[in-house]
Amino acid sequence: MKRAILVAAMFFTTASTFAAPAPVSDVSGGSNDDRIAKLERIIKAKQQVEFDLQRRMDALQNEVLDLRGITEQQNYQMNQMLQRQRQLYEEIANLTAKSSTPAAPAETQVDPTTVAAASSTLGETGSYEAAVNLVLKERKYDDAIPAFRDFITQYPDSSYAANANYWLGQLLYNKGDNTAAKQAFSTVVSKFTDSNKRGDSLVKLGMIAEKENDSAGARALYNKVLKEYADSASARLAQQQLSALKG
């Protein structure tokens, strides 16, 4: 935007220079016809300068409008991403709340080969969104497990890989498969150190340690969260778990 303002200032300066009235001496000498011809040339030159200025101003205005449109589009996309992220967090919270109740049997079982074939045709983003939709929209939690596993296999270094591992760990944790869930959460902790899901994964590892009667291990994990992610939602949950921890 600053570049656009500078360009506009240059245009105005150029226009002022070219549009300045010609000296009287330019038209004072010669016959009437010569003076008229000179005046016509001056007027024509001035009109041309004004036309060029208007054309450039129109181009500048279009550029400003384009920049404004890009900014609005980026703001919209960012808002959509934030809304989607909130939905994911809410769904994770709901899954955690349901973890203490027996999981309902799945209506259908998806063949892992079918999941892999579908993922290969959807691409990275499409495969991740398809796996998430199995949780958020279709509530097919058992089917989402092979979908996330296949995504992680195909795109281990994807920008979605940390969240995919966390989703997988959460789904496995809710099914009571603590060993596999621990592996998924540990992957987030060790491989994706910059992920915003690392603190949450440490808390989940602490909760698994509690289920395995490893109070010392759970306490160490919760304290690690408090140290590394102070004043975060993960730290508040770790403090709650730590306060309730016995032994």
From TrEMBL:
Signal peptide, first to last residue: 1-19
Protein name: Cell division coordinator CpoB
Family: Belongs to the CpoB family.
Coiled-coil residue windows: 43-98
Primary localization: periplasm
HAMAP family in the cross-refs: CpoB (MF_02066)
Domain of life: Bacteria
Organism: Shewanella saliphila
Compartments (UniProt record): Periplasm
Domain YbgF trimerisation: 32-105
Upper classification of the organism: Bacteria, Pseudomonadati, Pseudomonadota, Gammaproteobacteria, Alteromonadales
InterPro entries: CpoB, CpoB_C, TPR-like_helical_dom_sf, TPR_rpt, YbgF_tri
Described purpose of this protein according to its UniProt entry: Mediates coordination of peptidoglycan synthesis and outer membrane constriction during cell division.
